[in-house]
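task queued by scheduler; priority normal; single chain, no ligands, no partner chains; default sampling; output format set to structure tokens
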Amino acid sequence: MRKIFGGILVLSMAFFMLSACAGKEREGENGDALTWGTWGSYGKHEKFLTLLRETYPDIELEFLSYTGGNMTGYSWTQMRADDIPDIFITSQILDEELAKERLADLSGYAFINDFSTAILDQVSIDGGVYLLPTSNAMYGIYYNKTLMEEHGWQLPRDFAELEVLCGEIREAGLIPGVLGTQLTGGPFSTVFNLAKTSWLTTPEGVNWERDFLAGEAAAEGMWEGTMEYVQRYIDIGMFHTDPEDRNNPDLILDYLGNRKAVFCTAVQLVSITELPDTGDKLGMMPFISQDGSKNIYMYSPAFYFGISKRLTLPGNEKKLENAVKLLTLLFSPEGQATFISQETPCVMSVLSHADVPEDSLIYDAQQALRQGRAFRMTYAHWDHVLADMGQAYKEWFRGENGMDGSKCIARMDELQKKWLANSEQMYFCRSVGDFTLEQTAELVGKALGSAAGADAAMVPLGLVQEDGTELRSGITGKLYAGQIDSDVTATICTGVDGPYAVMSMTGAQAKEMARAGFDPEGSGNPFPYLLVTRGERELEDDVFYEIAFLTQGYTQEAADAYGAEIREGSLRSILREWLVQQGEVSPGGNPWE
């Protein structure tokens, strides 16, 4: 179903399928309603959407659900296919040239004047602004503020002071700092953040990153100084690793909460400012540069928002007017307040005049952002090698496999060269056309049914419901024309993965289940099921068939009634293997015999 402000529209399932699946034909279908991709985060936007409804009751929104396995990747896949919603939402700016081509330039609208120059500089693309962040999550090094005060320790202003302080901490029988390494993105970010305290955020560093990612520069000859600096952090005890390799929240609660360590370097947003067992206050300090001239914080926008360029075309004047009203409200103090709460002490407004209290966890981080001493977390364009680079850094921090700074540099060059050399080989299939959502679900059903050796597959479509409820176990991403790799495969998979089920039922029972839909919560408002059969044949009412179901794509009641057999597997793996076998897929093609 579609949820529309200004009135609830209930449509037949057939018409709904057409409108939800055919993005490019969707323009103008619903008058001046703006399409908005929920990104599986309707709940995160709900407060703002309530404010929007109250402020502009005449603005209609049509919600397009996506809860699949690669949200950032899917948003840019949609953009490449020229099939983005009117209000475009993403978490990373992955392709600046494509953003210029597909999105409206926001630099001429009044709401942009409320952003700091530092933020605008970082999102500017050839003088234009196409994506603006909502709230910013701030990252630094956490510390036990109460413990520091009890010992009379002051926050260090440069590395020399940090080195002295760490010596005093060790003399007190404590660990200076612990580093989160359970996810290799943590070590990756730690090394890159220290590089940003010196050269990586300079014009020379920006040019190097561009050239390195293009295969035109090497880490060797550029990273030696950074690796020496990282080693100094290791030597003074700032990067102690947890033997149990626990997650970041547990590290903070144990090491800082139980006063085992003073500092914790973790890419983690906390929901507390006071450690629960002791009542100790939590603080955040920057990554310390060698001479103290560039002590920095990192930030990551929760979302970036933009407007589809098609709204600037003749005939869309009213939609553009409403989209600008929406963004004006989004980037107002009232709009920003809907993204911030007591449970988000590390999140701050993007507005230049927004203040946080001086005793706030992120007060110093906010000042740094205004002063240009806060930088976006590195992720975009590094995703293919990030995990493996992080693994090399992790081994260095943990003293494993003889890894050190120089070997990490060599590993960086090796991984990037390997990726560039094999990038074309990463593609294992090709789509010759754009699929609708229903056709994509049919393709997934064929892959699952084939792997299960079943007669049919029952696939839920995860379409947003009237109350904003979304379904992570349903298909919500469309397959577009082009080359297919593991990332593209993830975009059309469900947001959950794991064992699937096979049930035995008659054709009549299967058709009735498909007609009734999937109601996981028993709310009486089911999600639609798509029944995909081998050979596209009609199931006979009195004949028993084996029906395959996706992970969490069925109710326990159905499992009990039809003797569900749970089988180990992964939809991503199943779909990848099936696509490899096909080599090429097309809407309505690839029969399942």
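post-processing summary
- The CA atoms of residues 232 and 527 lie 56 Å apart.
- Residues 405-422 form the longest helix (18 residues).
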